[in-house]
Amino acid sequence: MEEVIYLDGEFVAKGDAKISVFDHGLLYGDGVFEGIRLYEKNIFRFEQHLDRLWSSARSIMLDIPMSREEMIEATCETCRRNGLTNGYIRLVVTRGVGDLGLAPWICKKPSVFIIAAGIQLYPKELYENGLQIVTAATRRIAPDTFSARVKSLNYLNNIMAKINAQNAGAPEALLLNREGYVVEATADNVFLIKDGMITTPPTYIGALRGITRDAAIDIARHQGYTVREEPFALYEVYDADEMFLTGTAAEVISVVKVDGRTIGNGKPGPITNKLLQEFRAITATDGTKI
Ligand code: PMP
Q1: Rounded to an integer, what distance in angstroms lies between the CA atom of residue 138 and that of residue 178?
Q2: DSSP-derived secondary structure letter, 15
Q3: Which of 193, 223, 217 shows the shortest CA–CA distance to 203?
Q4: Which of 42, 36, 41, 37 has its CA nearest to residue 286?
Q5: Which residue stretches of the chain are H helix?
Q6: Most ligand 1 atoms within 8 A of CB, residue of 189, 200, 203, 244 to mutate
Q7: Element counts in the chain: helices (H) and strands (E)
């Protein structure tokens, strides 16, 4: 069965799902998106993803040309039409068709498309053994240039860091801000554990407020751990007992080496494992039914 894509009010075959070369989403990365998981026909934290999508759009003065209810229905229907039980959903809103100038007000109608498909996860061994990552030479965009809290279609900053990772033979890289504080990874948020205390950078230093990050904080607090949102530098990373990343695709994944330094004892730690277990238990049952 060919995949079916939602595109501007219609369901079209994957091969027919096309966008104009004059769409400013393509010409300038002008648009916003969400990456969401479907687990056992439940869309995980869908309301939070929609909140973030609308906040991203508002901050770039982009009017999403449909209501939240219409977006929910279109998303669920895209999952149903593709016969999905588990998968990954991509919601995209572009500025729409304009001319070759930057002016977004020339673009009369934003485009919305929704892809619901299977997902390529990190292999099981990486969850069992942990990731070995590096620090990227590329700095995260500063909040006074463009807010990393906007999940925009311009991911070149992250892609440059991803290239840094690839060149170092690593699956992920840490991004620092201009002050040298650790902000996040290329597509994941970052957490450290030291003496039982869990710390993640506050989003105001330049990180995306990840939906999985929020879920991990909720789970950890529910399990009785203290979670702080506080900036830290590489010193704290190298000195951590445990470290993990969170993201829609990665879920909760341990980091055991950074820049050649072993984190803790070099194996995924007990607190990280407990969080991952509970995260998987919650995703299997929680969420918006399609
Ligand atoms: N940071 C960045 C830069 C991201 O692109 C993402 C999304 N993959 C995340 C963090 C994690 O966010 P979420 O948990 O909402 O997927």
Answers
A1: 10
A2: G
A3: 217
A4: 42
A5: 24-28, 46-59, 68-81, 124-129, 156-167, 211-222, 234-238, 270-285
A6: 189
A7: 8, 16
Structure tokens at 46: 């869908």
Q: Is 274 a catalytic residue?
A: no
Query: How far, in Å, CA of 271 to CA of 269, rounded?
Result: 6
Burial class from Cβ neighbours inside 10 Å (0-12, 13-18, 19+) for residue 69 reads exposed
Specify the ligand 1 atom closest to the Cα of 151: 5
User: What are 255-279's pLDDT values in tens digits?
Assistant: 999 999 999 999 999 999 999 999 9
| Ligand 1 and 211: CB distance under 6 A | yes
Is the model's pLDDT at 209 over the cut of 90?
yes
Task: Provide the residue count of the chain.
Answer: 290
Q: Give the distance between the most distant pair of CA atoms in the chain.
A: 57
CA 156 to centroid of chain Cα atoms:
15
The pLDDT assigned to 13 comes to 97
